[in-house]
Structure prediction request, 385 residues.
Amino acid sequence: MFSGHSPELSRAIAASRRNFLRLAAGTAAASTFFGPAALRGMIAPHGHKAVVVTFGGGARDEETFMPDGQENIPHLLGELIPQSTFFSQVINKGILGHYVATASIVTGVYETFNNFAAVSPNNPTVFEYFRKDQKRPATDSWVVAPSNGFARIGESGHKAYGPGMGAGVILPKRLLSAALTSMSDGARYEHLLRDNYETPLHAPTLTGHQIELNQMAEVLKLSVDDFSTHARSLASPDEMSVYVAKHLMQQFAPSLLWVTLHDIDIAHSGTFSLYLNGIRRCDRLCAELWQAIQKNPEYANKTTLFILPDFGRDSDIDSGGNGFQHHRTGDSMSRTTWMMALGPNVKQNVIVDRAVESIDLVPTLGALLGFNARFSPGKPIPEIA
Prediction:
């Protein structure tokens, strides 16, 4: 499962990101360092919330943190990173498939099921830990995720956490499919409705039903006509995901909201321009979501936002890979990602170079939100928790 990774190369990747961020963000941004014990003992305030944004289809440093990629992430560089603690070396030691990798981040355990199987995670999810330990209602935890393979991401098959203890899962591609069904030029949107860019032969058929659209419109307190009209104006499912997330924040103000973006993974089509468009859109939408958090009185000054890729992509020079198009090699380029955290108890303009693992996020959320991620081998990240 975990092969081809070089700790030395991961450290070199982290150092390269750090050096570029120093130059790109100016003299003050991302220039302070501290050790693992710096924030130990910090206690999150009552009513603390967390929003997590993961994105499938990691964006390589060449198209983001390196000088030639800077133009693709103006919001991350100019707005978000200067306000964040940035982790430059986040290692994923699991299977590099988008559903199984996201499930591993969600459970804090490296899951081993078939990436294309319609199954729930084997281990308890962060949503189940949170709701059970904090005795929270179903409306306090939501996932907005690509469809259809992510339909079971909110609830595990673990025997200690029974049915009904997970998060509500909204699949924007299904909603987009239903909203666009009656359009005469609906064929132009087919590429937006593909459920899996990497292996379409194994992807479940995407189905959108009007009843689902009606139910979702009722949950979000929107008319179906308004919802459909807005869907027609969107350029991508990721825009629909953030649109839905904002309405969930307004309607329910959930304490734990997880948004998975997926447009970047169109890189599997082999079209470099679409891959860059996905990066730029993700950059903009992350900034829009942070702005929405600051403007919402239920979230402002009491919310921690986490942003991280599920994993990376292949190097251009690896003979076993396909460059930006795929993530097949399992080498350090594919496994070494990053994460940023922003919020009232998170130090700004900070870079952390030491290695952390993607499965450390769930125990970190546990420290912030007051639950015990008892089955996760990950560890709380002391710079945040």
Q: What stands out?
A: The CA atoms of residues 109 and 376 lie 5 Å apart.
